[in-house]
Design the sequence.
């Protein structure tokens, strides 16, 4: 009986650690889109369309990433890796 409980707890822990955090993945996606537009502005200068897109993506990124601002580096890297899988 103890073996069954131990096996169940171990498998639950493994599944829980390896599953991806959809909210974090949305944050990563919003950050990547924001960075692409920011790099275009840096390289080519800004026009009205890019400025508007920049502002919109900045708000989306801030909203999507709000709860992850104080996350530690190790945990963030683990969550990022889970999003890429």
Sequence:
């Amino acid at each position: 009986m103890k073996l069954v409980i131990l096996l169940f707890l171990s498998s639950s822990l493994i599944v829980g650690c390896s599953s991806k955090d959809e909210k974090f993945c949305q944050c990563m996606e919003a950050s990547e889109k924001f960075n692409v537009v920011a790099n275009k502005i840096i390289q080519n200068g800004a026009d009205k369309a890019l400025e508007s897109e920049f502002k919109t993506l900045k708000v989306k990124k801030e909203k999507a990433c709000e709860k992850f601002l104080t996350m530690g580096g190790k945990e963030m890297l683990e969550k990022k890796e889970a999003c890429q899988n």
